[in-house]
Amino acid sequence: MKKIFIMNLGTTSFKFKLYHVQGENMDVRASGEIESVGAAESRWQYTNCDGKNATGACPVPNHGAGFTLFLEILQKDGLLTSLQDLNAVGYKAVHGGSLSGTRIVDDELIAEMERVTPLAPAHNPIYLSAMKDIRENYPDLVQIARFETSFHATIPDYRTTYGVPYEWREKFGIRKYGFHGSSHEYIAGAMKKLQPEARRVITCHLGGSSSICAILDGKSIATTLGATVQSGLFHNNRVGDFEPFCLPMLMEKLDCDLEEVLNILSKKSGLLGLSGVSNDLRLVLEAADAGNEHAQLAVDTLIDNILGYIGMYTAYLGGLDALVFTGGIGLNSDVVRSRVCEKLAYMGLSLDAAANSGRTDGCISTPDSKVSVWRLKTDEESIVAQNVCQMLQ
Ligand code: ADP
Known about the structure:
CATH architecture of the largest domain: 2-Layer Sandwich
Radius of gyration: 21 Å
Order of helices and strands: EEEEEHEEHHEHHEEEHHHHHEHHHEEH
Low-confidence stretches: none
Number of strands: 14
Distance between the termini: 11 Å
Number of domains: 2
Oligomer: single chain
Structural class: alpha/beta
Largest sheet: 8 strands, mixed
Bound molecules: adenosine-5'-diphosphate
Number of helices: 14
């Protein structure tokens, strides 16, 4: 039996799950979360498999310290006897540049993640800091990264290439990588069990950060995120696809440097920037219902973006057997699902209105629909844990 500690890190957040893995069985024995990492006081919460909960507050200066905090809690709770009891830590790491898939954290991996940090400035530094910290404090502990780009390694070259000088791809790695790989991979695996005959699947991971993926026979063949996590659909705060030639004019009109424009595009744009209301779709939908025109435009644009990619990906797939919604928005917003699906009636797709407005995971299309529609909760950490375990074996 293997014990694996999986980390999912955000700028100020730390989430973990402790897995016990035996053969095909993967049990989550404990999970926890820290908010406000780096603040004077960080709040944490912990739950174990018996339903025992604990919460607390203390300074957690960085993500490495977050690992130490939960290591101690797990030992006190009897789920780990010592550090040696832990077989590995695994990361849902974001951008590994030329290194995709599942990799041991070593000097080469750290150097490549550092090289591509300009492409993932909000994510790579956090993971690098945790990896280095844990390596220093626990030098014998095996660390393994599963990159979010991994599932998209099967996308053909002609679909991962920008129309830029070829040398940029060769020399600098300027190409589309795709992200949210663990989520799309989990849904691909779930669909193999739920509807094995569905060869052509589109997964819509819609949340704070959103992407759509076309999956043929279980493999990714297209996705909306590109060289960075900024592209494709617009996101809660992020711009999505944008025209680089607007940048000089924006710098002039806003009287600011490139960094400030990029800051607006990555933190104050998307749903928030367009609606002027919030980065939370629930509040934007409320405002739209109350007559706020900018909020209505933001919702209409989001639906239209999603629809456009579904049309493009249906063409890539040569038809569509199943459409899946996941992520905070995909799972919870019946409005987004119904507005997208009503435009797909031309495919013979028909949503079951009662199932769509319900709260149960599963199929939400009518039995006679030519394309099945699903609302499924994703489980990214389980994909990381599975891959980490395979690597250990
Ligand atoms: P992240 O990408 O940060 O992991 P999530 O996948 O958890 O985010 O999605 C969070 C988003 O889900 C929130 O921004 C919120 O707008 C959206 N959301 C959650 N519930 C609903 C709902 N009932 N209707 C519409 N949007 C929702």
